[in-house]
């Protein structure tokens, strides 16, 4: 199954993302991109990174659809798409998607904003024209895809719901779920302390809550960036 499947990392460069999401710095996005690549690499699945340098199209829907089509044109039968804005994404999500594609037509990792952070799709079910008509970058996307799949009598498997980082509010939600943040993401939080001083108070409060509990990890998270 692995040899017929490829991961599409559809994510802009750190510089471009920092321009688009000004509440985070390019240093933070460099770390996020690095962690995303490592997550994909650990899966053992062939992956391709499409940044703004090799995306084609005038709209998000066009660029995303063209990128998926380009992967299928390389001879792969399945594509797993991810971005770089879901810090809680782990390798096991990719491997679970690979497994679920053996018995389902579509796999979706829903995000709390109504979109998705991951999609696993088979070539036989990819219709570019249909994709272009989807309400991309809206809260209706997830429901629209689900309804479309059901109308075609296809099967869909949902992964757990995760938060992505599109707004300042998303960042606050990440901080509030600090106990669930994996070790790799602590590097990002440290960078936030350094580059985003206005979030410093929130981070310190959450750190105190986390490391003051009886079952919490001991020591400062700064040890992870030494």
Question: Gist?
Answer:
With 226 residues, the chain is α/β, with parallel strands linked by helices.
List the helices and strands and how they pair.
Elements: E1 5-10, H1 14-20, H2 26-43, E2 46-50, H3 60-72, E3 78-82, H4 91-100, E4 106-110, E5 116-122, H5 128-132, H6 141-151, E6 156-158, H7 168-176, H8 183-195, H9 200-211
Parallel strand pairs: 1-2, 1-3, 4-6
Antiparallel strand pairs: 3-5, 4-5
Helix pairs in contact: 1-2, 2-4, 2-8
Name a few traits of the molecule.
single chain; 2 domains; 43% helix; Spore Coat Polysaccharide Biosynthesis Protein SpsA, Chain A
Protein described:
With 226 residues, this protein is an alpha/beta fold. The protein has 2 domains: 2-158, Spore Coat Polysaccharide Biosynthesis Protein SpsA, Chain A, CATH 3.90.550.10; 168-225, no CATH class. The chain has helices at residues 14-20, 26-43, 60-72, 91-100, 128-132, 141-151, 168-176, 183-195, 200-211, and strands spanning 5-10, 46-50, 78-82, 106-110, 116-122, 156-158. The protein has a 6-stranded mixed beta sheet with strand order 2-1-3-5-4-6, with helices on both faces. β4 and β5 form a beta hairpin. α2 crosses α4 (91-100). The longest helix is centred in the N-terminal third of the chain and has 18 residues, at 26-43. The termini are far apart.
Structural class: alpha/beta
For the largest sheet, list the strands in their spatial order. 2-1-3-5-4-6
Uncertain runs are 211-226
Q: What is the number of E strands?
A: 6
The level of helicity is: 40-55%
The number of helical runs is: 9
Shape: globular
Name the CATH homologous superfamily of the largest domain: Spore Coat Polysaccharide Biosynthesis Protein SpsA, Chain A
Sequence of secondary-structure elements: EHHEHEHEEHHEHHH
Major sheet summary line: 6 strands, mixed
Mean pLDDT: 81
């Amino acid at each position: 199954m692995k040899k017929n499947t490829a991961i599409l990392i559809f994510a802009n460069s750190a510089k471009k993302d920092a321009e688009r999401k000004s509440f985070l710095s390019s240093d933070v996005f460099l770390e996020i991109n690095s962690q995303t690549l490592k997550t994909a690499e650990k899966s053992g699945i062939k992956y391709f990174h499409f940044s703004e340098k090799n995306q084609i199209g005038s709209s998000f829907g066009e660029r995303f659809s063209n990128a998926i089509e380009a992967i299928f044109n390389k001879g792969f039968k399945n594509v797993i798409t991810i971005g770089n804005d879901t810090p809680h994404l782990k390798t096991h999500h990719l491997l679970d998607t690979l497994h679920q594609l053996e018995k389902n037509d579509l796999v979706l990792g829903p995000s709390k904003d109504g979109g998705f952070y991951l999609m696993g799709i088979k070539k036989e079910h990819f219709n570019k024209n249909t994709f272009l008509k989807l309400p991309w970058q809206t809260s209706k996307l997830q429901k629209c895809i689900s309804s479309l799949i059901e109308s075609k009598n296809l099967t869909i498997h949902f992964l757990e719901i995760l938060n992505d980082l599109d707004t300042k509010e998303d960042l606050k939600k990440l901080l509030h779920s600090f106990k669930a943040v994996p070790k790799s993401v602590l590097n990002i939080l440290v960078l936030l302390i350094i580059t985003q001083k206005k979030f410093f108070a929130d981070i310190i409060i959450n750190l105190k809550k986390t490391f003051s509990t009886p079952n919490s990890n001991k020591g400062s998270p700064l040890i992870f960036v030494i």
